[in-house]
Fold these 3 entries.
Entry 1:
Amino acid sequence: MHTYLIDLLECPSCHGSLTWSISSQKDDRIIEAIARCQICTAEYPIREGIGIFLTPDLPRTDLWEQGGQQLSRLFSEHPEIEARLMDSPLSNLGPADQFFRGMALEERGEYSEAQRAFDAAMPELYTDDYRHCWQSQVDFVLEALAGGTNPVVDLASGRCYLVRDLIDATERPIVATDFSLHVLRRNREWLIHHGLYNRVSLLAFDARRTPFRDNSIETMTTNVGLPNIAEPENLLGELRRITSGQFLAVSHFYSADDSANLSALQGAKLVDSLLRESVLTAFREAGWRVSVRNSRHGLARPTPQGEILEGASIDGFPVVETILEWCVLEAR
Ligand SMILES: C[S@@+](CC[C@H](N)C(=O)[O-])C[C@H]1O[C@@H](n2cnc3c(N)ncnc32)[C@H](O)[C@@H]1O
């Protein structure tokens, strides 16, 4: 993480100020350090450049770590499955297996082969509408942020799709964040490999309890991050606390009369995060002024399942074909 962040950070547990002991720094990047809360004495390490501001009390399911572990367990118990997935010609695999092969290659650091697998998978995994509607939202965010110089904090950055585009399209410092240390470490390797790490800081924290001071963030983004955050009751209030400027959230919504998908989403406790009116109400109740920008509608289908990784899916939703609304929520 870069040194400019020191002025923006505080204890995520009690909001106390932090005392920094930096043991390794390269130019303006802190590599190894401990940040200690002056009030509750909690300690937050910076390891291999990643600031770790996770608190012990919030439960979290790190799907990236689980997925990686499941794949390596499966490969060690069934080497024949690994051989079929990794050694068959790419064009012989179904799209889900192509995607899983990409993920396994990325874990091994074989980035260009991984990209080839992802590129092959995408057109079959997602409808043209789905990809174009999504890309249109990302383009909207990039255009909105193109001119400025202040840092962008991206929430629930996952594999950094939006972050990669922000690096290309802007001159801004970027803070990629996620509660999964596993995915942040993988991102660091990917960004270094592609020569894109320079302006990026990586911070591990839970978006429901961030380590930022009140009103410290001028520009915040997320690329379909919000519906991935479970038990989001205080999420939008916490984001309101730390944001002084704008929050641009790439979002998609299900229609209120899409009963098949809504009842499946209900079962996964996701329905309130994926219905336009519930989300807008939640923003307003948390004190945001929010508007829907760049609305686009497009066809979405369930993603095909793996054949070699039998039954494994990329996305759980939609469960039946539907029309989704895509947009950027612009909140201030
Ligand atoms: C699938 S990603 C979204 C796509 C991503 N924004 C991109 O542009 O590539 C969703 C991420 O949310 C993260 N996540 C889920 N709950 C979270 C929480 N409470 N705080 C921070 N990150 C969270 C997951 O670890 C996952 O990486």
Entry 2:
Amino acid sequence: MPHSLMLFKNRLTEEAKRLRAELLQDLSQSEHFFEREIALKLKATPDINWIELLQDKIYPTLNKKVIRLNKVEAALCQFEQGVYGICADCEDAISLLKLEQDPTEQRCLPCADKSAV
Ligand SMILES: [Zn+2]
């Protein structure tokens, strides 16, 4: 694994940590009882199972963070599988510039353009 990619792994790990802390704080301070209950449940749930627990419920206000956490975790999972930074469509390497903009990027520039049309 090239060193440059390892930097993205650190970034993704930090982002996942931050998102989890934010979600926990948001839920703990929620005015809705059921959301505070979820916060308690999350505290007793291993990190990797958070998405499962959160996705079952719909939190319009927190949805963006849950979706982002899901993407970040998927990218971290790709590190484990040794396929991080590889385009999901053509299997070319995704440019570092693109990963720099968003380390959860799944497509190289030509493929991203194609799927945007
Ligand atoms: Zn591609």
Entry 3:
Amino acid sequence: MQSLCVLLLACRGEIPPFDGALFADTGWEPKQVYAQLTTARRLGAQAGIPVRTVSNGNIRLDTLNPATRFVTMPLFVKNPDGSRGMARRQCTGDYKIRPLKKAIRDVLGYPHPQRVPRGVFVDQAIGISTDEFHRAKDSDVNYTRNVFPLLDLGMSRSDCLVYLREHGMGEVVKSSCIGCPYSGNSRLRLIRDTDPHAWADLIEFDEAIRHGSPRATAAGKPLRGQFYLHRSLRPLADVDLDATRGTPSAEEDDPDGCSPFSCRTGTPVSSPSPSTT
Ligand code: SF4
């Protein structure tokens, strides 16, 4: 949502223009996000800012494919003794940071494994609003320099919403995988109530990941415990998503979308392997 606001600001000439905008697509976003992407492409094209999608595969398909390594999404784990855990998250690094870095290297003309010479870099504008300023970080590579237009303009998340609405963007949906375990009940209800196909897909996925990696299971190394998408450690189909409606609760709450360089859950993002960065 904040990224869309930054793009719109650039398209309208309220901040310096960009040479391009990148959307890291995990292949499993809600249909509303893809509709927003289409709008972003149209606005960008009108302003001479190409909006490109970059990808490192489809997170849903890859997770269930026994021929590929298991994608480590931050799934909730019910351990054999009944205690709760959470799988280590590598998906943001693999599906967002890695393809973004690759695209930036390509733009600069130094694809991996070439060394990017000192002093050659892009300014990378990241949509972090004033209410989350503590998430603004320097880049971990020398070929990108992070800049934060919303912080420079003093814009909060609600300022962004107003700005987007004032310029015809209507209700903007957060970007995040349909099956992101960080989704709270409110987001899950939105998927259930607006996209029955995505909801059925989500229920099927939740059942399919219960015993861990299909590849490991086939190799005789099944997961000790069970994976769940929902923090209640119950099958998603059995969760009463309406029970928490309108009440502040852990189940209702969800972070504000998946941001590659500043995960709004507050949990650290695992960078992809240094050999590719
Ligand atoms: S939205 Fe969730 S599942 Fe998707 S990449 Fe981000 S953290 Fe991983």
